[in-house]
Write a structure and sequence with these properties.
This protein has 127 residues and is α+β, with helices and mostly antiparallel strands. It has a single domain, classed as Yope Regulator, Chain: A, CATH 3.30.1460.30. The chain contains four helices and six strands, in the order H-E-E-E-E-H-E-E-H-H. Strands 1-2-3-4-6-5 form a six-stranded antiparallel beta sheet. The model has no long low-confidence stretch (mean pLDDT 89).
């Protein structure tokens, strides 16, 4: 998995709104922002991705954005990677992150899975 530079982490952290409901934590060995347990933006190496409905991600795609694929051929539905120039365009990037936060805030909250819950969800391979 690609890792972000310290500069990318600092730039991302600076662009994510500081609010009590917003948390930052590792995801995919990188850094991601969450609201009510829902991931709305993050880094994957030097790339920035946001979560938006298709109609709102269309302008990002027109500017060079693409599906977010943490593994080649496995796009995460609803997530788009913003153009590589995201750090040099902080106003546009802040707008995309804010729209993503607004969208994710409207999703049903996710309860944090405890260790026992996560272990219970693992498939055993038995029938």
């Amino acid at each position: 998995m690609p890792k972000p530079s310290e500069q990318a982490k600092a730039a991302f952290t600076k662009l994510v709104p500081v609010e009590p409901a917003v948390t930052m934590r590792p995801m995919f060995g990188n850094l991601a922002a969450f609201v009510n347990g829902n991931m709305f933006a993050g880094l994957f190496g030097e790339d920035l991705f946001v979560r938006l409905p298709d109609d709102q991600s269309a302008p990002i795609r027109k500017q060079g954005g693409r599906d977010f694929e943490p593994m080649p051929g496995h796009a995460m539905k609803g997530y788009v990677t913003v153009p590589y120039t995201w750090r040099s365009k902080p106003r546009a990037t802040q707008t995309w992150i804010a729209a993503s936060l607004h969208f994710a805030r409207g999703l049903p909250p996710k309860a944090a899975a405890g260790k026992k819950q996560a272990a219970a969800k693992k498939p055993t391979g038995r029938k």
